[in-house]
UniProtKB/TrEMBL annotation:
Origin species: Mustela putorius furo
GO molecular function, one term: DNA-binding transcription factor activity, RNA polymerase II-specific
Domain of life of the source: Eukaryota
PROSITE patterns: ZINC_FINGER_C2H2_1, ZINC_FINGER_C2H2_2
Any one Pfam family match given in the protein's UniProt record, by short name: zf-C2H2
PANTHER family the record matches: AGAP004733-PA, ZINC FINGER AND BTB DOMAIN CONTAINING 37
Protein name (record): Zinc finger and BTB domain containing protein 37
UniProt keyword list: DNA-binding, Metal-binding, Repeat, Transcription, Transcription regulation, Zinc, Zinc-finger
Length: 123
């Protein structure tokens, strides 16, 4: 897993702190977990916080290799695999490796019909 310091520059961290302050302020006036911009509802405050970043343009997670910005840490981790060539998803039938679960699933449908891939990264 990529260290947070490698993913988020100083400006990204400052944006993140600003976003936390803003979200705390508007949450006091919006206890039903409903987006004040599009009325989408959420079961958890964290989910609403992540959603609000889209409307607010807050992108605290920055790729240090190319500068691309993301609203969520998992999006950045997914993106970084394109730079690093990390392929943590392995086919237990033929041994090939893939950077993403979706590509492993596609490989199984095409090359090993009837077999089911193991979920998650494997060593």
């Amino acid at each position: 897993q990529v260290e947070e310091s490698a993913m988020m520059g100083v400006s990204g961290y400052v944006e993140y702190l600003r976003e936390q302050e803003v979200s705390e302020r508007w949450f006091r006036y919006n206890p039903r977990l409903t987006c004040i911009y599009c009325a989408k509802s959420f079961n958890q405050k964290g989910s609403l916080d992540r959603h609000m970043r889209l409307h607010m343009g807050i992108t605290p997670f920055v790729c240090r290799m190319c500068g691309k910005k993301y609203t969520r840490k998992d999006q950045l981790e997914y993106h970084i695999r394109k730079h690093t060539g990390n392929k943590p998803f392995h086919c237990h039938v033929c041994g090939k490796s893939f950077p993403f679960q979706a590509i492993l699933n596609q490989h199984f449908r095409k090359n090993h019909p009837g077999c089911i891939p193991l979920e998650g990264p494997h060593s």
